[in-house]
Amino acid sequence: MSSLDHPAVAKVAAALAEAGRHDAAAGIRILPAEVRTAAQAAEALGVAVGAIANSLVFRAVFADRTAPLLSLTSGAHRADTDTLAALVGAESVEKADPAFVREHTGQAIGGVAPLGHPAPVLTLVDTALRAYDTVWAAAGHAKSVFPTTFDDLVAVTGGQPADVAS
């Protein structure tokens, strides 16, 4: 099975097409090696590291529940968990373990896409990504990426634009 045939990549392609983002679905690229960091993805694509939308899944702890929080963060900086908590009204935001990430996204860390999850995930989209005409996001597998824009990331995820860095 090639990476393009991977079930998570196929689900992301279908979600992009369903959202009317046919160019993004058709633009899914399978890279020769896994790119689990923004720096690796940027190098493989020949783009600025800031144009990479890192899909970072956190465990947001609210007074009455715990929920996944997806921060689509520019590869040029780090998301600040205190800032994330304040943005979503959580008591705290913690790093999620691999099982939590897979449970809520259906995808493994290193290849988590902004969409194609079993259920909607509360999402913040880093406003720093607005600086790039083309933004690259994971497509469900550590070797797959797709081109998009800041505005499309906000639209297809139902996300909230936010300054996620400290």
Describe this entry's structure for a reader.
- With 166 residues, the protein is an alpha/beta fold.
- It has a single domain, classed as Alpha-Beta Complex (YbaK protein).
- Helix content is 30%, strand content 25%.
- The protein has six helices and eight strands.
- Strands 1, 2, 3, 4, 5, 6, 7 and 8 form an eight-stranded mixed beta sheet that branches.
Based on the coordinates given, report the CATH architecture: Alpha-Beta Complex
SS content category = alpha/beta
Q: What is the arithmetic mean of pLDDT?
A: 94
Note the main sheet.
Answer: 8 strands, mixed
**C-alpha geometry:** globular
Which residue ranges are poorly predicted, with pLDDT under 50 across at least 5 consecutive positions?
none
Q: Helix count?
A: 6
Order of helices and strands: HHEHEEHEHEEEHE
Number of strands: 8
Keywords:
166 residues; alpha/beta; YbaK protein; eight-stranded mixed beta sheet; 6 helices; 30% helix; 25% strand
What is the strand and helix layout of this fold?
Elements: H1 7-18, H2 22-26, E1 29-30, H3 38-45, E2 52-61, E3 66-74, H4 81-88, E4 92-95, H5 98-105, E5 122-126, E6 135-138, E7 144-148, H6 150-157, E8 160-162
Parallel strand pairs: 2-6, 3-5, 5-8
Antiparallel strand pairs: 1-7, 2-3, 2-4, 6-7
